[in-house]
Amino acid sequence: MTSPSLRTLTRPIVDENPITLQILGICSALAVTRRLDTALLMGASLTFVLTLSNVSISLIRSQVPRGIRLIVQITIIATLVSVVDQLLRAFAWELSRQLSIFVGLIVTNCLVLGRGDGFAMTHGIRASALDGLGNGLGYALVLALVGGVRELLGSGSLLGQPLLPTRDAGGWYEPSALLLLPPSAFFLIGGLVWAVRSAKAEQVEEAEPVPEAAQPVPGR
Amino acid sequence: MSHYVQLFVQAAFVENLALSFFLGMCMFLAVSSRISTALGFGATVMIVQTLTVPLNQLINTWLLRPGAWAWAGLPELDLSYLGLISYIGVIAAFVQIVEMTVDRFFPALFRALGIYLPLLTVNCAILGGTLFMVERQYTFGEAAVYGAGSGFGWALAICAMAGLREKLAYADPPEGLRGLGLSFVVAGLISLGFMGFAGIDLR
User: Do B26 and A198 touch (CB under 8 A)?
Assistant: First the structure.
């Protein structure tokens, strides 16, 4: 594998992570991370859809008129998501019940459409496939991290296996109920963004200009 | 009647799409830096949501769900696997119609909202409202009330967020937290606040 294509694959995993830098696909990252297994399944489903949709969009990119490209892209994505949804219902019914509507919502996941329109429309099939895979993996990595922390500290287990013996079961660990509540995902991802940006200073945003009225008045 | 009021309050506050289910989060973080734009975008979401949820309810009831084709003598036909494509098609088409109508009759509003309208198609709050409606098997009346309530709740949430972020321009956070990181933390705190609504029961 040549190094530019390797870069296409690895760049989105940390340096240009879809969630912490591109602000794409955040909804599902927050909602399905209460447990590690749903987070992993969601990451896998999205990677699958994103890779295939990037390939399909790249295949027909020169045939699609610009005016209707969004509708064409969203139809391709909706078809792929329907396939994933039906497969999960058939083979992983319990997990698919817990993911609830969020598998269906991959259709409107801005990550899939964003990479499809922003990358696959202008690049070849091979590069698009690698870009889809890389972004999917970067997304899955964040989901797995958040899901792992929330399940471990919130219920003392990982993938349903008890690791920290909880008080209820006669152990020492007092589970933190906050991490089972939805807002904790915000705090964890906020902290993750902070950590990534402390390590990679070039990602830090410019400070917003303070409105005129708030400038300190000279001579006071 | 009280059933509908209860449903509205539940959809707007207790099960707020943005803060309890995190739907439409990308827009929620991207469009919430000014109150004026947040207000306009919230209002558009509310209108589209109020109309597409009942519309998709009709499509699900008469065309897609198992037994929907009984009136045509095909009682065993089950088209529910076509759901996702139909709903997103309806939403995309509807957003297009709204865009053209607003452009033709309310040019001032169009200038203010023009760039946000196409984004509505990929706002997961809108598809999410429809999917929740299908999952919970709402009737037509319930679907209309749920659409209005959830759209209202989303608009309320984004306005609250924008108000806080305008004030945050004066804050001096650590460098790595500036912008996106701080927005996440603020959204988490609002979300904690909204959890206080969970105890409300109007029955």
Answer: no
* Parallel, antiparallel or unpaired: strands A157-158 and A161-162: antiparallel
Residue the block writes with tokens 């207790």: B14
Q: Which one, of B149, B154, B143, lies nearest residue B120 by Cα?
A: B154
For residue A206, give the amino acid letter: E
Task: For chain B, give every domain's residue range.
Answer: 2-197
- ipTM of the prediction: 0.76
Q: Tell me the backbone φ, ψ of residue B34, rounded to 5 degrees.
A: -130, 140
Tokens 């991290």 belong to: A145
Q: A166 forms bridges with which residues in the sheet? A: A173
Inspect the interface and report whether the beta carbons of B175 and A204 lie closer than 8 Å: yes
Is A197's CB within 8 Å of B181's CB? yes
pLDDT in tens, A158-199: 777 777 777 777 777 777 777 878 788 888 888 888 888 888
Chain A residues in contact with B19 by the CB 8 A cut-off are: 182
Residue A113: closest CA among chain B residues belongs to which residue? B122
B171 burial (CB, 10 Å; 0-12 / 13-18 / 19+) is exposed
Q: What is the pTM of this model?
A: 0.80
Three-state DSSP string of A148-183? HHHHHHHHCEECCEECCCEHHHCCCECCCHHHHCCH
Helix, strand, or coil (residue A199): helix
Whole-number percent of chain B with pLDDT over 90: 12
Taking contacts as CB-CB distances below 8 angstroms, the residues of chain A near B118 are 70
* Residues A105, B23: C-beta atoms closer than 8 Å: yes
Q: What does the DSSP assignment read for A49-108?
A: HHHHHHHHHHHTTTTS-GGGHHHHHHHHHHHHHHHHHHHHHHH-HHHHHHHGGGTGGGGG
Please work out, in degrees rounded to the nearest 5, the angle formed at the alpha carbon of residue A22 by the alpha carbons of A70 and B119: 35
